[in-house]
TrEMBL record, chain A:
Cleaved signal peptide residues: none
Family label: Belongs to the NtaA/SnaA/DszA monooxygenase family.
Source species: Micromonospora radicis
Cross-referenced InterPro entries: Diverse_substr_monoxygenases, Luciferase-like_dom, Luciferase-like_sf, NTA_MOA
Presence of keyword Oxidoreductase: yes
Gene Ontology MF terms: monooxygenase activity; oxidoreductase activity, acting on paired donors, with incorporation or reduction of molecular oxygen
Superkingdom classification of source: Bacteria
Protein name: LLM class flavin-dependent oxidoreductase
Keywords tagged on the record: Flavoprotein, FMN, Monooxygenase, Oxidoreductase
Domain Luciferase-like as annotated: residue spans: 39-306
Residues binding FMN: D56, T100
DNA-binding as UniProt keyword: no
Automatic annotation (TrEMBL), chain B:
UniProt KW keywords: Flavoprotein, FMN, Monooxygenase, Oxidoreductase
Sequence positions that bind FMN: T94, Y148, S219
Ranges for domain Luciferase-like: 23-390
Keyword Oxidoreductase: yes
Pfam families: Bac_luciferase
Organism of provenance: Micromonospora radicis
Descriptive protein name: LLM class flavin-dependent oxidoreductase
Family: Belongs to the NtaA/SnaA/DszA monooxygenase family.
Database matches in InterPro entries: Diverse_substr_monoxygenases, Luciferase-like_dom, Luciferase-like_sf, NTA_MOA
Sample GO molecular function, one term: monooxygenase activity
Keyword presence, RNA-binding: no
Length: 401, 450
């Protein structure tokens, strides 16, 4: 079914709309409970979705880009996303689990072993969205380096541009180290050879000896190569610098077109970035992000949006386009964008669990009717779901046959 | 009611205690192995599951050590997954403070405590070794003398972060549109020699308030750290005499910190071998020791004491005539040496080998790693209970020699006997690990402020 599309859901607290918690049937503190996440994952798996993502940050949610906003009327606080999805893993069987984890103040070694372990405990269903942290608020939580406050109105100021370039260059190094560590064990490193008393063949374990501007990492990993070899890396990208980062280091890119025209343009920009990077890996899976607010009829959906905006005190604005309407209308839009070259979608439910339920019970059947979405899981890893082959270990590929 | 035992299950580690060559030995990395051991421990109503940590593969003579099990999961990720397949079992993980920062680790541990319904525990270790540091941003920056300074300040800082959310911080008043009670929820500021951090912590107060804190160091500094900061000690005093002395020493330190003797549990790591008769158990114990000490392993263990390349020696031949080398540069990287006084120990080993006519391998089998409890289930249950009732410990962290079935027989045959004696729970009576361990509740932030 080459024409089918990929479908992901992005989970964040009680939903993406700032007033989601006011209308959700769930308890305001539901996101601190494991059952909240396992129920959402089960629902997404009922819809045979490719994967779910869980948002994360090392700072409190805020309506300001540079630090806490002191508000008490919106949902605040969140749990570690890797931990959430590790907790979800044994309760699910098919769906991909893609946590967000910050690369800026954290250790590449820990990130690598955490995602590798998520892959082991989920039987090959882990992915990872590396996130760059550019706020001075987060830097102060670690106290190890200064990140100057960024003026959100002057993002093109030279020192800001330099900072962003540096942070993305560091992120590139982090992903490089994480990936090298995943390959630092060959798949057949454990030999359990009783004759010689050797548990591993150390010639199949490799130092990575990475030295960069920000850190050096020796290796090898402490964790054997993950079941997928290389769990998929997904990058959320809004600008050409991020497309370039994705083209070099990612398997999946989440993009944010405002309409069909922009979708066509962004697909072209991503493909151009791949060419510029000399990418040899399979092409990026391009998933368009959409915030979705669904109801049986367009009128009911609009009413829900108006009610949410009224409770929030402002019309909702997001980096991604906001879709308000019926599942059938959304299916039309996704069909259009899919024809424009987008491989699939990451839907951000405005209110949880409501809009996820409508995705699963309304949108998914509509897409299946059009022959655009799977009716059952084929069985396998997240890479399998995404149509990505399992990569050969670089150390095996490099050695003579 | 007699004193109740604490029982914990240690996932078999990456040293020669773990026998991988046995036909019954399973994977050290498949999640199914962890599920098996955790569910067995929970079937036996154990207090907690325990996971060790290593952040660099061990090396000997400059090469990756290949004779023992190699490879393990990331501690926190694995424990969160186990929370999904267990309901009561505590989940304890070893997490190094040298290569982590308090904001991130406190956040992860509080998350684990939420996601497990109050079952998280943290075994605090601190390393000064530059060898492991090569895998991390800061390298081997920590001076050995500052290990406990860092550990103490790390734990104190983590507790400040855990206390930064009042239990009632989330108001959730939909009608009034008030999610938080106060805008400055999670606010913290810590200034010290190790950490200078401030901002807002993002995780609401977890079910236990503070995850249970374990500590494993044995030096006077380590004991003091435990007395001031920990809820339990993973000790290595597995003989009754050693145990009682250690127990008295540590418990006596508690009053200085305004704590009672029951506020710090002493739980040595121990091994066991069961048999239908004591003779059969002894035979099995000897068989396991031979599995644990292969000819190659015997030479490597000897090298750890001698700190020399002994690869030319015959495992069945005599011990080296020369004394150990006392260089600071250890032949083994990534684990601690066997003793602080290699010369004396080597002379003792040589004398013993001569007296009993033992070759290298048999000598190593004799002097290292003998199992703590060997006998029939009745005998082992009685010995363990006596150990605890005579205040040599408060319970045990059992280290099975096989993955993943090494605890099965203990749970099936010894636990019921302890339950019959009324010294171990027949059912869980609480939900959190603090409940199981009978530890006082973590002070609430308001009480801290008062």
């Amino acid at each position: 079914m080459p024409d089918t599309l990929h479908l992901a859901v992005a989970l964040d607290g009680l939903g993406w709309h700032p007033a989601a918690w006011r209308l959700s049937a769930a308890e305001p503190s539901a996101p601190w409970q494991a059952t909240w996440w396992t129920a959402l994952a089960a629902e997404a798996e009922r819809g045979t979705l490719d994967l779910l993502t869980v948002e994360d940050s090392l700072a409190m949610q805020s309506s300001r880009p540079d630090g806490p906003d002191g508000r008490t009327d919106q949902q605040r606080g969140r749990l570690d996303a890797v931990q959430i999805l590790a907790r979800v893993a044994p309760t699910t069987r098919h769906i991909g689990l893609v946590p967000t984890a910050t690369v800026t103040h954290t250790e590449p070694f820990h990130l690598s072993t955490a995602v590798a372990t998520l892959d082991h405990v989920s039987g090959g269903r882990a992915g990872w969205r590396p996130r760059v942290s550019a706020t001075s608020a987060e830097a102060r939580h670690f106290g190890r380096r200064d990140i100057p406050p960024v003026d959100p109105l002057r993002l093109d100021a030279p020192q800001t541009a330099q900072l962003v370039d540096d942070l993305f260059a560091e992120a590139t190094d982090v992903v490089e180290v994480v990936r090298r560590l995943w390959d630092s064990w060959q798949d057949d490193a454990v030999i359990r050879d009783t004759a010689t008393g050797r548990f591993v063949d150390r010639d199949r374990l490799h130092y990575i000896d990475f030295t960069g501007r920000w850190f050096s990492v020796k290796g090898p990993s402490i964790v054997p190569r993950p079941p997928q070899g290389q769990p998929p890396v997904a990058v959320l990208a809004h600008v050409p610098a991020a497309y370039a980062f994705a083209a070099r280091q990612a398997d999946v890119v989440f993009v944010t077109p405002a309409d069909t025209t922009r979708a066509v343009e962004i697909v072209a920009e991503v493909r151009a970035a791949e060419a510029a990077a000399g990418r040899v890996d399979p092409p990026l899976r391009i998933l368009a992000d959409l915030v979705v607010l669904l109801d049986e009829t367009p009128t009911l959906a609009r009413r829900r949006r108006d009610r949410l905006d009224e409770l929030a005190g402002a019309a909702y604005a997001s980096d991604a386009a906001l879709f308000t309407g019926s599942p059938a209308q959304l299916a039309d839009l996704l069909t259009d964008w899919h024809r424009a070259g987008v491989d699939g979608f990451r839907l951000r439910p405005a209110v949880l669990p409501d809009d996820l339920s409508t995705i699963v019970r309304g949108l998914v059947p509509a897409l299946r009717d059009r022959g655009l979405f799977r009716t059952r899981y084929p069985g396998g890893t997240l890479r399998d779901l995404l149509g990505l082959p399992r990569p050969v270990n670089r150390h095996v590929a490099a050695s003579p046959a | 009611m007699p004193k109740q035992l604490i029982l914990a299950a240690h996932f078999p580690g990456v040293n020669n205690t773990t026998v991988w060559s046995d036909p019954a030995a399973g994977s050290q990395i498949d999640f199914a192995s962890f599920v098996h051991l955790a569910r067995t421990a929970e079937r036996g109503k154990f207090d907690f599951f325990f996971l060790a940590e290593g952040l660099r593969l061990r090396e000997q003579r400059g090469r990756i050590h290949d004779l023992d099990v190699v490879g393990r999961p990331d501690t926190l990720t694995l424990l969160a997954a186990l929370a999904g397949v267990t309901t009561h079992l505590g989940l304890a993980g070893t997490l190094n403070t040298t290569f982590r920062e308090p904001y991130e680790l406190a956040r992860q541990l509080a998350s684990l405590d939420h996601l497990s319904g109050g079952r998280a525990a943290w075994n605090v270790v601190t390393s000064s070794d530059a060898f492991t540091g090569e895998n991390f941003r800061r390298g081997g920056y920590l001076d050995r003398s500052l290990r406990y300074e860092r550990a103490t300040e790390f734990v104190r800082t983590a507790r400040e972060l855990w206390d930064s959310w009042h239990p009632d911080a989330v108001l959730g008043d939909r009608a009034a549109g008030r999610y938080l009670r106060d805008a400055d929820v999670g606010a913290f500021a810590h200034q010290g020699d190790q950490f200078d951090i401030s901002g807002q912590f993002t995780v609401p107060r977890s079910p236990q308030g503070h995850p249970v804190v374990l500590q494993a160091g044995d030096s006077p500094q380590g004991r003091e750290f435990a007395a001031s900061s920990a809820d339990a000690i993973f000790s290595r005093h597995s003989t009754p005499e050693d145990g009682r002395q250690f127990y008295r020493d540590v418990k006596a330190r508690l009053a200085r910190y305004g704590r009672g003797p029951d506020d710090l549990k002493i739980i040595p790591g121990v091994t066991f071998v069961l048999g239908d008769t004591d003779a059969e158990a002894r035979e099995r114990a000897h068989h396991i020791r031979r599995q644990q000490v292969s000819p190659q392993t015997a030479i490597l263990l000897l090298e750890q004491l001698w700190n020399r390349d002994l690869s030319g020696y015959d495992p069945d031949g005599p011990l080296p005539a020369e004394d150990p080398q006392l260089d600071d540069d250890s032949i083994i990287k990534g684990r601690t040496r066997l003793t602080d006084d290699p010369i004396t120990t080597a002379r003792r080993w040589r004398a013993l080998a001569e007296e009993k006519h033992l070759g290298i391998r048999d000598l190593v089998i004799e002097v290292t790693g003998r199992q703590s409890f060997i006998g029939t289930p009745e005998h082992v249950a009685e010995s363990m209970n006596h150990f605890v009732q005579t205040d040599a410990a408060d319970g045990f962290i059992l280290v099975p020699h096989l993955t993943p079935g090494g605890l099965d027989e203990f749970v099936d045959r010894v636990v019921p006997l302890l339950q019959e004696r009324g010294v171990f729970r027949a059912e869980y009576t609480g939900t959190t690990l603090r409940d199981h361990l009978n530890l006082p509740a973590a002070r609430t932030p308001s009480a801290v402020a008062a």
